[in-house]
């Protein structure tokens, strides 16, 4: 794996070294995709936003401030794209038969119509757990969801989240605390506690 820092690779791409940008893209492929996927809950949209994020990085590479860190800059771009996508989705609510039943699964609504599963009780229990987790994340406002995803799914520290989202450290901590509290309250309500 390439040992140069993200910032060195970005500088190399500015000098015309196309391989340097490819290394950056590959370095963040899984991590950034996971952030986008868990933030918006749609695999195809996450793939599109991943590509758009790197397209914006490539198009705006001259704007990258000397001395700044690449990772927070990249996540700021991706978070803004995810927010825009969530706003678009709120404006056009619809349900497609090609939509995934649960984020991360390959099962679509259309396939459920023809489904002949062997153990309906086990599938129902598994679906209930997945549905509850998805509902808890979906119930969170986007501002809380993105902090949860960055912290728990992408293992980002408070300082990195603060930098990536352009928020004060206290705001990051309070949003994470509030998100956990809201998810816990949702779970208690669902389970009748």
Q: Which descriptor suits the 3D outline?
A: globular
Structural class: mainly alpha
The count of β-strands is 0
Subunit organisation of the chains:
single chain
* CATH class value: Mainly Alpha
How many structural domains are formed by the residues? 1
| Annotated CATH homologous superfamily | RNA polymerase sigma factor, region 2, helix turn helix motif
Overview of this protein structure:
- This protein is an all-alpha fold and 193 residues long.
- The protein has one domain (6-94, 140-191): RNA polymerase sigma factor, region 2, helix turn helix motif (Rna Polymerase Sigma Factor, Chain: A, Orthogonal Bundle), CATH 1.10.1740.10.
- Helix content is 72%, strand content 0%.
- The model has no long low-confidence stretch (mean pLDDT 81).
SSE diagram, text form:
Blueprint: H1 6-14, H2 18-40, H3 43-59, H4 70-91, H5 109-113, H6 120-139, H7 142-153, H8 158-165, H9 169-191
Give a brief description.
This protein has 193 residues and is mainly alpha-helical.
What descriptive keywords fit this protein?
193 residues; mainly alpha; Rna Polymerase Sigma Factor, Chain: A; 9 helices; 0% strand
